[in-house]
Amino acid sequence: MGEAVLTTRRQADGAIVIEVRGSLDAATVDLLRETLVGTLQRERPVVLVVDLTFVVFMDSVGIGTLVSGYNSAREVGTRFVLRNPSEFVHRQLRVTGLAEMFGLPPSPSSTQTFTP
């Protein structure tokens, strides 16, 4: 099982960015889930960005955590954005049929950042 490091920061426009580095699997998703839910409950940002640039591995538990974050954000009226998913992560989301739900392009080379 892998390791993950999370960094949270607020951008000048008020959006909160959670940068994830490493792997999203059974050993690491609890920290991400707690960070997502805690940030949404405490901060109630207009936009919550999850930056996946440096995620090297993600399994079904990681995907489930992103879906939970997306659903939690919708419940409080926050726009949930995935930024720069690696090719591996993008493929995982595409194969599971979730890329469209997250507003990602059909392939990672189409565009790396989605901002609706």
Please characterize this protein's 3D structure.
This is Anti-sigma factor antagonist. It holds the Pfam family STAS. It comes from Paractinoplanes globisporus. Belongs to the anti-sigma-factor antagonist family. The chain has 116 residues and is α/β, with parallel strands linked by helices. It has a single domain (4-95), classed as STAS domain (Transcription Regulator spoIIAA, 2-Layer Sandwich). The protein is built from three helices and four strands; from the N terminus they run E-E-H-E-H-E-H. Strands 1-2-3-4 form a four-stranded mixed sheet. The chain is globular, with a radius of gyration of 13 Å.
Please write out the topology:
Blueprint: E1 4-10, E2 16-24, H1 29-43, E3 47-58, H2 60-76, E4 79-83, H3 87-95
Parallel strand pairs: 2-3, 3-4
Antiparallel strand pairs: 1-2
Helix pairs in contact: 1-2
Distance between the termini: 34 Å
Which sequence of strands runs across the widest sheet?
Answer: 1-2-3-4
* Count of all domains: 1
Radius of gyration: 13 Å
CATH homolog superfamily:
STAS domain
Determine the number of helices (DSSP H or I, runs of at least 4 residues).
3
Indicate the low-confidence ranges by residue numbers.
110-116
Give the overall form. Answer: globular
Largest sheet: 4 strands, mixed
By CATH, the architecture is named 2-Layer Sandwich
Approximate strand percentage: 25-35%
CATH class: Alpha Beta
Q: How would you classify the helix and strand content by structural class?
A: alpha/beta
